Amino acid sequence: MIDRRLISNFDWGMFIAALVLSLIGVSTIYSATRPVFDAEQQSFYIRQLYWIGLSVIFFLAVISVDYRQIVRHSFLIYIFGIILLVLVMFIGRKGMGAQRWIPLGFLSFQPSEFFKLFFILAMSRYLAAMGENLGLGMLKISKIAAVFFVLPALLIATQPDLGTALILLFIFVSMLFIAGIRRRLLVIAVIIGIISLPFVGNVFWGGLKGYQKNRIVAFMDPKVDPQGVGYHIKQSKVTIGSGGFTGKGYMKGTQGPLRFLPEKHTDFIFAIFAEEWGFVGSLILFLFYLFIILRGFDTAKKARDLEGAYLAAGITFMFTFYFLINAGMTMGMTPVVGAPLPLMSYGGTALLSNFLSLALIENVRMRRLPNPFN
Amino acid sequence: MERRILVSSYLVLFVFALLVLKLFNLQVIRGGEYKKVSDNNRLKIVRRPAPRGIIYDRNGMAFVSDMPFFDASAVKKDLPEDWNTLFSLSSILNISTETLKAVLNKRPVDNSDSVKLKENLSFDEVAMLEARKIEFPGLQVDVRTGRKYLYGALAGHVLGYLNRLTPGQLKNDDFSDVPQEAFVGQYGAEKFYDGLLRGVAGGEIIEVDAMGREIRVVSFEPSIKGKDIRLTIDMMTQLEAERSLAGKTGAVVAVDPQTGEILALASSPSFDPNLFSGGISHDEWSSLADNPDKPLLNRAIQSRYPPASTFKVITAIAALEQGIITEDTTFDCRGSLKIGGRDVGCWQKHGHGRIGLQRALAESCDVYFYEIGKRININTLADYAKRFGLGSTSGIDINGEITGLVPTSEWKERTRHEKWYMGETVSASIGQGYLTATPLQMAMLTAAVVNGGRLIKPSILMRDEGGPSLNEEPVRVRAETLDIIMRGMRGAVQERSGTGWSANSKLTSIGGKTGTAQVVGKDSFSKGYNKKFKDHAWFISFAPVHNAEIAVAVFVENGGFGGVAAAPIAKNVIEAYMKSKSDNEKLRLEKLKEMTEKSMPEIVNEASATESSEPGSGD
Predict the structure, then answer these.
(1) DSSP three-state, residue B315
(2) Is it the case that residue A248 has pLDDT exceeding 70?
């Protein structure tokens, strides 16, 4: 069923990098949740291990089907995704002030987590059909936005899941950029963006929920309320900073297990890692992520067709945004917007989604055109 | 397309570079600073006060010991916030629900979320809390070591008490190593020798979580126990002094005239220093501080009264030294003497007849000393008073001593802008008028008379225990003069006509001088009706007459005649000391037990029953 050539084209580097990062994630979750008062270790790390196993199986499953087959059904998949997003409005489980989860008996999952992939698939097919070096103008962009972007973005934003909606916007814009935007429009967009930032910020501000405003205020000045929202950012910076050059050592971090840093094993897992492994460890970790990202762009360049190129580029952008937003957030560079660190944060849906995304890139890479010099 | 992907890669690289820069800034440049913050997060430094030194009497009998005190505190977030809990706690701890609510609403000191509900729980309260522990999650009973004064109020004014650091002390460097919650000496020996008794506090560094719960002890530094000290006080003598003063207002000071060691120092009414050990409540403090009898005032060193006839000792010394009289000089006492056109009376209205110096001292003839007063300059008299320590602090190692006053003509002109009248010198010569002294000063004066003329700085701490070194000043008076005075004082006690006859002892030979300080003019009418206007009684004494081992000054406020109210007390104290010296330790402990087993009211009753049984001889 699987071509021998496909197997020889399998990019071990990306797969192993992803697997290593997810295992580093498990070990960091283990350290972050190690018990201080209770006798037993909480089971987070075991559940995460199960999810890694499941993710690898799905990874293998996804690479065994030609991505072109998948892309062919991408519009259907996209519509299925939209239905799920609508569904979550009605039967979704509420948690932390938002309605994002669909309960599935023993587990619940976030449709928006997978929808981003569906979105990239559909966009890839649509853009590929249009060709390359499109030199998109305002009109065409509006059309594409109206078809693919506006409805899901609204559905996700009203859950509310501003983080994901924002990521969706980034993916949308960056994929258009890859497709080619008219140079004049690009320049004007950048200029208008810079000029209107305060105004947009103001309107945006009025539409925010209380906790969202708090997060932004805290981001601007963590000292405003050290016990409240600012506390989170401050403690995250303390956690990272206290690691110093070489770190406190594995299982020797204090900020997480002693509960000074909330959400230590989910969104703030990087802080825990940086505390224990220091600047040296963090730098190596960054290189792993950078490797995966550059590998993704490389795959886009080498893809055998436009669909593969758009797909690989889109997914790489998504992965990049998640990484940058999460790392920036934990280091106090960007506001706190509930974005997990790809591959490392605790959470099954996100992990599975990460592996599926990378599987699609792998898929495209395996089926690239043979290197003429090889 | 490839170009745009390349651009994207470069953009990603650029942003990564920014992240790495930020990471470098956080971990490498500011890493040390954040490390400190994270350590401050998790490490709590707890200072543990050292066990305090024990205070013994001169014979090695302990005045104090350590005992556990129990405090209740609660971790607020674990305590159920319902009325039931509030009411139960309120009834167990005997605090009103309002107070309890106010305490629970207080913001905790650190991030520990734990608040102190009540200090110094009774055993019943502890038992109740322990029994019903399950109803109050988050409630803790903490044990701490506190001071127990074994004999309650005994020597309260000497021992002093412990209390929390005052706001001033919190800022003082001397207390920088004292844990904030610790108790330090705030009065008496506990205060003066706090540096010796306190020891060196130890410390623990404890790892805590974000909720302030203790996880483990990271490092531990043991405390160094405070030094035990031996006071010069003789517990039996002290006990007798206080027993004799019970129910009265006044003071007794007994001192070894050769060394300046204070053998007993009592002030009545007194207080129980145990009240402070567990953290004194507001009500308890108010009842002490606002009490009109001022139990917190150490009358032995902090109150001044005209020394009255006890001062005749100084007048006589001055007159002898100045050649105004000799031992054989006699005057004729007809019950009064006309001075400046006014008659001043002798307490003996019928007069003493022709009387010499020794009888004048023994029978406290006023006219004899008026005659001296007519012939002596006030400033000369003041000079001798000062040589014997009046008008300045004795330098005793208890805080708060006052000076009293020795008036001079210069003093009067400076403070009252009036010239000195001869009549005032006459008044001063019998220890009345502006002249005031503390009981301690009078005891040290007596000591100086009987030890060959050495004014010694008194102390309450044994010299070999780190007490002050012997510090004495010669009074520059001829030995014969002091001999004459001592013979006069012996007569006062040992002759039936002496005013101090009631101090006469079969056990030892006592010498003394009575004094009766008039309170308001000569209005005997009001005196009879109001105790407030009764005269103050003084008695200064020493024993044995040859080679005195003890000098005692007794003062009883509104006690009446010195010979009646004060002299018997001095006799009791002297006898107690003489017996104590010959007792062995076992006997001493037995006696002490017997004495202290009686409650205070019993002692008072006993004291008042014996009060008026002695024959009154006047002054």
Answers:
(1) helix
(2) yes
Q: Which residues contact A102 (CB under 8 A, 6 or more apart)?
A: A84, A87, A88, A91, A92, A93, A108, A109, A110, A111
Cα separation values, B157 from B267, B283, B298, Å: 7, 21, 6
Nearest alpha carbon to residue A349 among A15, A123, A86, A54: A54
8 A C-beta contact, residue B43 and residue A254: no
A174 CB within 8 Å of a chain B CB: yes
Q: Round to whole Å and give the CA distance between B120 and B118.
A: 7
For A120, A137, A169, B294, the CA distances from A186, given in Å and listed in that order, are 21, 9, 16, 90
Q: Tokens representing B112?
A: 């520990």
What is the Cβ-side half-sphere exposure of residue A114, based on CA atoms within 13 angstroms? 20
ipTM exceeding the 0.95 mark: no
Of chain A residues 303-362, which have a CB less than 8 A from chain B? 309, 313, 317, 320, 324, 327-328, 331, 333
Cβ–Cβ < 8 Å for B362, B495: yes
Burial B513-552 (b: 16+ CB within 10 A, else e): bbbbbebeeeeeeebeeeeebbbbbbbbbbbbbeebbbbb
Two tokens at B56?
Answer: 């013994």
Give the number of other Cβ atoms within 10 Å of residue B102's Cβ. 11
Tell me the two tokens of residue B370.
């008026």
- Cα B391 to Cα B65, B305, B369, B386, B516: the distances in Å are 38, 12, 21, 6, 20
How many Cβ atoms from other residues are within 10 Å of residue B571's Cβ? 27
* Strand partners for B512: B541
Are the Cβ atoms of B209 and A36 closer than 8 angstroms? yes
CB contact under 8 A, B38 and A309: no
**B302: its two tokens:** 């902090």
What is the mean pLDDT of the segment spanning B555-562?
Answer: 93
Catalytic residue among B309, B394, B427, B505: B309
Query: H-type helices in B246-356, by residue range?
Result: 274-277, 282-289, 299-302, 312-321
A289's tokens: 């992520």
* Dist. CA A186–CA B150, nearest whole Å: 91
Report the alpha-carbon distance of residue B158 to residue B290 in Å, rounded.
Answer: 21
CA distance B426 to B371: 8
DSSP code of residue B405: B
Query: In angstroms, rounded to a whole number, what is the distance separating the alpha carbons of residues A302 and A312?
Result: 10
pLDDT exceeds cutoff 70 at B45 = yes
Is the CB of A36 less than 8 angstroms away from the CB of B215? Answer: yes
Q: Is the pLDDT of residue B229 over 90?
A: yes
Q: Which residues of A touch B18 (CB under 8 A)?
A: 333
SS3 (DSSP) at B400: coil
Check residue B596 and give its pLDDT.
65
Under DSSP, is residue B561 helix (H, G, I), strand (E, B) or coil? Answer: coil
Cβ atoms < 10 Å from Cβ of B402: 15
Residue in the structure block whose two tokens are 């936005």: A145
Is the link from the previous residue into B269 a cis peptide, with omega within 30 of 0? yes
Q: Is-contact B539 B503, C-beta < 8 A?
A: yes
Please state, as a whole number, how many other Cβ atoms lie within 10 Å of the Cβ of residue B410: 12
- Residue B436's beta-bridge partner residues? B405
What is the mean predicted confidence (pLDDT) over B11-35? 94
The whole-model pTM stands at: 0.69
B309 annotated active-site:
yes
Sequential DSSP letters for B187-224: SHHHHHTHHHHH-B-EEEEEEE-TT--EEEEEEEE--B
Give the β-pairing of B250-255 and B262-268: antiparallel
| Backbone φ, ψ for residue B347 (5° rounding) | -60, -25
| Residue B31 distance to chain A (closest CA, Å) | 5
- Least Cα separation, residue A245 to chain B (angstroms): 5
* The pLDDT of residue B190 is above 90: yes
What are residue B171's DSSP bridge partners?
none
Task: Choose among B237, B231, B70, B69: nearest CA to B159.
Answer: B231
- What gap in Å lies between CA B447 and CA B513, rounded to an integer? 13
